[in-house]
Amino acid sequence: MTCVALAALLSHWRRQPLQFLTLVIGLALATGLWSAVQAINAEARASYAQAAAQLGRADHASLSAPSGWIARDAYVALRRAGWKLSPVLEGRTRLGDVAATVVGVDFLSYPMPPEADAGSPEITPERIFTAPGLLFAPPDLAERLADMPNLPPVVSTGELPPGIVMTDIALAERLLDRAGQIDRLLVLDNQPMNLRPLAELAPDLDLTPPERDTDTARLTDSFHLNLTAFGLLSFAVGLFIVHGTIGLAFQQRRAMFRTMRALGVSLRRLTWLLMAELGILALVSGALGLVLGYLVAAALLPDVAATLRGLYGAPVTGSLTLRPLWVASGLGIAVIGAAIAGAQGVWQLRAMPILAGAGQRAWARLSARRARVQALAGLALLAAGGGAVALFDGLVAGFALLAGLMLGTALILPALLDLVLALIQRGARAPVTQWIWADMRAQLPGLSLALMALLLALATNIGVGTMVSSFRLTFTGWLDQRLASELYVTARNDEQGAELHRWLEDRADAVLPIRGVDASIAGQTGEVFGMRVHETYRQNWPLIAAAPQVWERLEAGDGVLVNEQLARREALWPGAQVAIGADWHPDVIGVYSDYGNPVGQVVVGLDTLLARFDGVPYRQFGVRIAPERVPALIAAIRADFDLPASAVIDQAGIKARSLGVFEKTFVVTGALNVLTLGVAAFAILTSLLTLWGMRLPQLAPVWALGLTRARLARLELLRSVMLAGLTALAALPLGLLLAWVLLAVINVKAFGWRLPMYLFPGDWLILFALALLAGALAAALPARRLRRTPPADLLKVFANER
Amino acid sequence: MSVRLIALILCLLAGGAHAQGFAGLGTTAEGFAIPQRGTPLTFPQDHGAHPEYRIEWWYLTATLTGADGRDYGVQWTLFRSALAPHDGSGWETPQLWMGHAALTTPDAHYLDERLARGGIGQAGVTAQPFHAFIDNWQMQGQPGTGISDLTLRASGPGFAYDLTLTAEGPLVLHGDQGYSVKSAAGQASHYYSQPAYTVRGTLTLPEGAVAVTGQGWLDREWSSQPLAGDQTGWDWFSLSFDSGARMMGFGLRDGGPGYTSATWIGTDGSATALPDGALKLTPLETSAVAGRDVPTRWRVELPARGLDVTVSALNPQTWMATSFPYWEGPVDIAGSHDGRGYLEMTGY
Lengths: 802, 348
What we know:
The complex is a heterodimer. By secondary structure, chain A is α+β, with helices and mostly antiparallel strands. Chain B is mainly β. Helices cover about 5% and strands about 55% of the residues of chain B. In chain B, strands 1, 2, 3, 4, 5, 6, 7, 8, 9, 10, 11, 12 and 13 form a 13-stranded antiparallel β-sheet that branches. In chain B, strands 14, 15, 16, 17, 18, 19, 20, 21, 22 and 23 form a 10-stranded antiparallel β-sheet that branches. In chain B, a hairpin with a 4-residue loop joins strand 1 and strand 2. The radius of gyration of chain B is 19 Å and the shape is globular. The interface of A and B includes residues 115 and 116 of A.
């Protein structure tokens, strides 16, 4: 019996291969979209963790020189004083035609040398320490390097982060052309007793504690937040699609269920069979989706990796590994989505009397009730989201608001559309027009899930697009403001700083010393910077709140500026007082934006800083000079002061790099946008195809009344485009609201700064057009079918008993 | 963690005294100088490094007594290991250095290890004036006195020492004028000692500083292939008797009868080399140390000199848990002769 029943159930798919295909593709697309985003996130995070651990930053404090590098003799002197340190020399270079970061270490003291992969040739001390030496590289890089002529032998190791070549420091000196230089000294464990403190032995070196909570991680979090938001939204879109396709698969087979029940298949058995069928379908489609997600992620990852590397210096592999987490979550969404949708279908099946199972009216009545219930649920979700933000603090509340907003609005959409259509219908006079609107309303229940998916896709598109574009505008504007000087120079020590200052005074339009110390600010470690108030700052410094005469007061030592993060965290707006160190409580007279900086920062007048703190370093300078004179000045500084490239930075270079990074971000965002839209359009197509079978009885009378098939087909297209257009109109405010939540709620909760929102109406028009196109494309196939339906089929409608 | 990589580096470094059974040392020493019988040792030049040989060490041990009446032992060792038979400057030098320092009390054992590359000034040895150093550990002579007057310093987690050593006798050349055979197959090293230092100074322990006096023994040895391939470990004794006589003796273990060698040093400092088989070493009692059984009580017999003594560890747990681990610690001597000394055991 079971076998026969199952065969009967499955026969539906054999007779309707297109429906089967849409169901599988729908599930696969939803899974694919979700798992692609998850895969990218998981990969990037895994990369940082590995990088932090492998480069010794996670477990060891390190010493570095503000001027850029430590002389080898200084290292030896600290060693001779007893300190156990391990030198690291690091730099970008080209190895053959591959650009890589070369990390040179002393393998005798380096605490975590990489282990060669299995199958590598034997590594002997001779090969490591004597010419030509060995290069250790992650497998993909090792493979590329192996083909390069004139390079030392390469050893593949899975323990190195992407893009990193580790080698003995002797070889690194040659590759980087930096003889006698060291970038940082790892402070090793088990130091001997009775050592003189490092601060005394090497006062000009900075000690950085272990990066257990890495700066990289905190910075890149903002990027991941964007991706996570995308992930959540794609999850929602995916759920709707899964729900829609499965729901429709139930509705299509009502007649069959009725027949089977009438033939004696128990409700219980039918339920189990349906569940089993769905489970298998979900798993198969989910697996297909994973493959799809993998391909999408693999295609996008190089750009994401480039973004993260460029923006934050975080090494992320450009290649993808299958991680259990996102594989599980991808299959999870397919199965859970199918289970929820299936449960609803089964519940409906139980609730309806056997003989009414196939009745159109019964379904319509149920749908109307469902639309009302849905709308109410949607309102409740909106209220819950708002309530979460009002009642709770923190990121989770922000995400709750986001989820409530998106799901709530989606659930309200069918009722809203029905209302709009009813209003239009009331205004219609001509019979055909009246029929069009009425028919559209009748179609709504069947299309509502697809339209919800479209709504979410469009809103996501607008929301994330607005956020990314706003971020770009703000960030570049901020870069222009904060990096007002044409050139930034860091001296090796205070003496050289003083000399450099005098030297620069004669050659530049203005020299702005950048001097600061670490201090306790409002109970937490932060930075205090001294500023010589200059026209450059008056014109450019990005103040978002200021007391009157802020610059005059700052110069006079009557008050301080704080960065936005600190202001928001500690409620330090103009008029408040901030505690700095033990016994200083100056007035806050201004707040400036300081994107990307996780710590609190205070700016005071330079004289005030020097009066309040001892030993303020005198090494960094901003230099104002005509842009065309910059290259010559850089060359002169390097020649006269023997400073490394990293100690002389020109602002144009930084800006160009940052903007390049944003272009990469746009590629990723754009690709994900197109994908979500495509998936939503596909959902509409599936729904229309499903409705097709039921449409014939509705269209046949109209056809019989004289409307040609061609006209009916055109009307079909028009209807779909109209619905897509209406949905797009509803998506616009939702998308803007979403952008606002991301920029003004989630960003503030996550990072402590708020981004201003910019609007891009041109993008909306394009999106609107895309939505109409999606509607038209989705309806094209059914319309074409309608045009070609033989009149005999339409006539049969009147003959068949329905 | 690349255990394999570290092990490889350290096997090579560990060379010499602790080289038993390691790859690379049982092989031929291409390009490196080989010890030749009849090569006279010249001082002070030979106090310095011999980069053309593969391995070399400066090995000082001291048995001390504190003002608190307790017995102590101190070890200071600098190993040199060459990847190629030449010196060089900068990181590119093939000369690698390893230091081991230890301070032993009857109930505690402190130790530390340092690794360094020659060529950058982090470690090295000069002959005139004598100066051997790695990081902040150093053994330094006075100008013009060779190794007769030394200051010795080292520190590690939980310990430090600062000692002055004064030689009370002449240098002792082992084997044939400093040419010391290490196996029946003829492997050999250049080997001399200064076995007669009086020592005074200060030990620093977690519980505080303690003034000490006692006796010290410096071993100097260099070679390029000191052991035969089948030798698996060795037991090495430096014994100073209350009579003023001393004995250096070692037994190399292999699958068969092994190989022993000894030098008897008279009260006047005159040295007599004794051939293979003259020295008899018998383990009497083992202790469980670092998860293995190590003989910490020995019967040492040298019938030619009427020696029959029991040698017992001051602290059986003096395990050198360094990159290449071994046992090294002060011992007490009782029997036909009384005295104190040092014992080193590898390959257990």
